[in-house]
Design brief:
The chain is mainly beta. It folds into two domains: 56 residues, no CATH class; 41 residues, no CATH class. 11% of the residues lie in helices and 30% in strands. Strand 2 and strand 3 form a beta hairpin.
């Protein structure tokens, strides 16, 4: 089955609320789709790439699913402008010159399309 061209972008390299359906395979990595139907079309095309004189066993490593959460920044603190000569802020916290901010990370529900 050939992958149909559409005027609307039907896949991208990162997930969001609209592009939550995915395929992972060795050559293309993660690909995110805006519908299960488009994902299925891509799967059929990708799968055929594993058929030569017989099936390459790697075909079994293609996985697909639906993303519900992604790892996102939490508790972000931007580097203050007024550091002393030792790189300390007003609270005495040291800021490495290589960092513009500090934060943690947690699983959060998918972000809305366009907010990336």
């Amino acid at each position: 089955m050939a992958i149909q061209e559409t005027q609307h972008k039907d896949w991208q390299n990162y997930p969001d609320e609209e592009y939550k359906y995915f395929i992972y395979e060795r050559d293309n990595g993660m690909m995110f789709f805006n519908s299960m139907e488009i994902r299925e079309q891509w799967f059929q095309s990708i799968k055929e790439g594993y058929l030569d004189d017989g099936w390459d066993e790697e075909v079994e490593n293609i996985v697909a699913g639906e993303i519900t959460h992604t790892t996102q920044q939490i508790n972000r603190v931007d580097k203050p402008d007024n550091l002393d000569e030792d790189g300390l802020d007003e609270e005495g916290e040291y800021w490495n010159n290589d960092y513009d901010y500090i934060c943690g990370y947690a699983l959060k529900p998918l972000i809305k399309a366009g907010e990336r």
